[in-house]
Amino acid sequence: MSSVSQSMEHITVPNGFKLHTENSAHILLPDTNDAFLNPIQEFNRDLSVACIRVWAEEKEEQRRQKRLLRRQKEEAKSNSINEEGAEASKEATSTEEKSTGIIILEALSATGLRSIRYAKEIPQVNYVLANDLSEAACQAMRRNVDINGLGSTDAASTIPPKVRVNEGDACTLMYAHRPAKDRVDVVDLDPYGTAAPFIDAAVQCVRDD
Q1: How does pLDDT run across 41-99, given as a tens digit for each residue?
Q2: Which of the 8 DSSP states describes residue 145?
Q3: Rounded to whole angstroms, how far apart are CA atoms 158 and 156?
Q4: What are the φ and ψ backbone dihedral angles of 142, each rounded to 5 degrees?
Q5: What is the pLDDT of residues 166-199, one digit of tens each?
Q6: Distance of alpha carbon 146 from its chain centroid, rounded?
Q7: What DSSP designation does 65 have?
Q8: How many CB atoms neighbour CB 89 within 10 A?
Q9: In 3-state terms, what secondary structure has residue 49?
Q10: How far apart are CA 191 and CA 209, in angstroms?
């Protein structure tokens, strides 16, 4: 509880907003309800975080095993690897391990709470693409991303934000990620009603390897 209190000390709550905290995430909710949040779905969000985290751990281990197998095959082809070559191989493997990570696309983000929790609570996350059609919702997301320390620190920063906000149609965005090189690892769909209109786009933009 004390760690949560300490993390909230730097957050200034403007007039017309209230601070909402859920697990590791803090968001500012406007009194006007421009950005929708259903607090009853907290358990659902907990399950989503847990499931993706376990899946990401398994995926990471599978990638590690593939890299190990590939390295063993390469070493088997050459019995005369010198010390310098072995060290270079280790460095290459280390770089590859650091570069791996999962990309999550949340198509209907609203306040951005799910995206923020994914970015903060799943260590394997490279970045989260948080999308909403509403301009007001995207403004709320950018504000919430910033107070959680997940945005760019300044305009000149070369480090991309861990949560990247996009304003646009969900299906259009997902179809734009249909090319193999642009596909994501996880798609999160949490619509007001049925998810049926989004299923085709979601399936086509997710990786299948």
Answers
A1: 999 999 999 999 999 999 999 889 998 998 888 888 765 555 555 555 555 444 444 45
A2: H
A3: 6
A4: -60, -40
A5: 999 999 999 999 999 999 999 999 998 999 999 9
A6: 15
A7: H
A8: 14
A9: helix
A10: 27
